[in-house]
Automatic annotation (TrEMBL):
<protein>
    <submittedName>
        <fullName>Phosphoadenosine phosphosulfate reductase</fullName>
    </submittedName>
</protein>
<feature type="domain" description="Phosphoadenosine phosphosulphate reductase">
    <location>
        <begin position="219"/>
        <end position="391"/>
    </location>
</feature>
<dbReference type="InterPro" id="IPR002500">
    <property type="entry name" value="PAPS_reduct_dom"/>
</dbReference>
<dbReference type="InterPro" id="IPR050128">
    <property type="entry name" value="Sulfate_adenylyltrnsfr_sub2"/>
</dbReference>
<dbReference type="Pfam" id="PF01507">
    <property type="entry name" value="PAPS_reduct"/>
</dbReference>
<dbReference type="InterPro" id="IPR014729">
    <property type="entry name" value="Rossmann-like_a/b/a_fold"/>
</dbReference>
<dbReference type="GO" id="GO:0003824">
    <property type="term" value="F:catalytic activity"/>
</dbReference>
Amino acid sequence: MGNDVIIDEGWVCWDSKRNAPRLNCRKWRMRHDYWLAGSFEKRLVEELISAEFKIHYRLQDRNVLIHRAPNPSPRSMLTLEVFADGVRLGVVEYRIGEKWMIHPSGGLASLLNSLGAYSVEVESDHGRRLKGKKVKVVGDIDGLRWILLDLDKYVGVARVIDASKRIVKVKDVAPKGFKPLPATGIIQVVEANRSLLETAINEAVGFLKKTLENVMDGIAVSYSGGADSTASLVLSQEALGHARIKVVYVDTGMDLPGVKEYALRILDKLSLIPHVVSSGLDPFNEIASRGLPMRDNRWCTRILKLEPLRRFYREHNIRFVIDGSRSRESSGRAETPRIGRNPLIPEVTRILPIKWWSRLLVQLYIVNKGIELNPLYDEGFTRLGCILCPAMHPHELELSYTKNRYWFERLREATGLSINDVMMYLYGEKHN
């Protein structure tokens, strides 16, 4: 870490007055990336809760915090810890062949109990320490997987083990009385974190100014239209001004629809000149000759992205490039130095102003600057790169297929590969 100042420490609590998560407040430890949920994620959690407990808990007009948690089993492809209304709601998990499922918490049970959700009583007194125990309940639990337990001053959530014998296993218990807080939005999250946000901005701007204080030209900002690169772009403009930076966008030929348009719209808003570069290659022909890009063979990055960038850097005498890589994105990026060389383009020094930021802090910075977040995040995408990317989670690839079927039809015509072939090659899973 060297002399880096890590302002976003990875702890979160809840500001009940604003109904908003607050950073650097020691209640919940965020070991991986965390962010405010978009519409897709909120709807997903709503639907899972409704399916299991037959009650509607509205999240669309609330601040919902998502934490990318470790996967609990080899079948898990994505695990998201969910927080709202000052409560840890539990975990939603995407498994190969099983799609999404929810593992509810006692806190969620208490919230749902206050909303009038169906609950049953335990047949005999087992005391307070029921967590992890199998118990027999009084009431109808046929057709249910999860059930709420009425435990006098407490409420529990239990997994149905044998409905005919009314046997359940208690997963968690919490005090009764948790209730949904008044609905608020992202502006309240910005206000709850105003001081920390200003400190983070000042540190990042100061870092860029100091790092490039004697450099008047040869500076590029790599801009992809995603939240991280948008934050780095605006910070670069704030620190260095318009004249010292060149903004480069790589059109790979298979960008998610809307990403390039968003990027150009933001650059126009910031009065920055875009330099759009491309390999000039047909992605379908490249896939036909090279095979699908895989997680351990991302030839697409080298050929369709880095080669055009390398030409641009050479033609414009670029010596420094600013980009939005963050440590919380992956273990590989965590090891990337804040100032260093990209092994694939070693002649250019890479600078990472938001290396230590969470995605939540990125979101707050962008909104605080009056810039819209890319609407694709609300559609369920976490990576705003290509229509087909080996770094996508399976559910994102399925989303991409659903929204871009014309592209996958062209892929099938050019290569013979169907969406099921792609899913099997990348994840060992068929598309349903």
